[in-house]
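Hey,
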Amino acid sequence: MTLTHCQESVCSFSFLEWEIQTKSWVHITRRVTTLYFFVVIPKSKSENESSVWGYAWTNKAWSTAENRLVQRTVKHPIKVYIWGCFSILSFGKLFIFTDNLNAQKMLQIYEKCLLSSAKRWFINKNEDWILHEDSDPKHRSRLCSNWTREESVQVLHWPSQSPDANPIENVWSYIKHKLQGRKTFTFKQLSTQIRRIWTSFLPEYAEKVVSSMPRRCQAIIDAGCDWTSY
């Protein structure tokens, strides 16, 4: 995340001002809890997005002139898109699909997974939680914007090009790490592996990741909106 990216924030105020304001905001009691989510789609579309590929493991071997190493690859490996959400209380529903994500699909995920997870945590009061999502055009589409307004869902303003401040990136990295070394050849096998990892997450892990937000904000402020260890 560079200063140029910060200056191009979709918010009406600068990224540094946003960090300072958010740093104060995240110290509010748990009565107002941020609901985090992520969408995993092809990496070529955004540096904040990536894909889950099947048949992923690492083999190490020497290659010499007499014993040439032939590295075989899968031309079209299994690939799925996933969406998940979590709050400081625990992890919510996971949605796995293979078709491209658009505004209609996003709305379907909101209704099927987002609301059901939020109701489990906060009963039926959407005013008690805040949705944290990036500035993807699908999230900002008229269809999705109208839905969040009609459902009284509060959406946290989020600067573009800011993966360091998004705690779901840590969860996503952990899932990718756990998938390494697991042989998956079909959509069902890959989906099953992902769901097993997701359901293994404890509520303590969700609380730990969400509680890191004040430190994340402070780290970005100290770095002058440059790279941080997060």
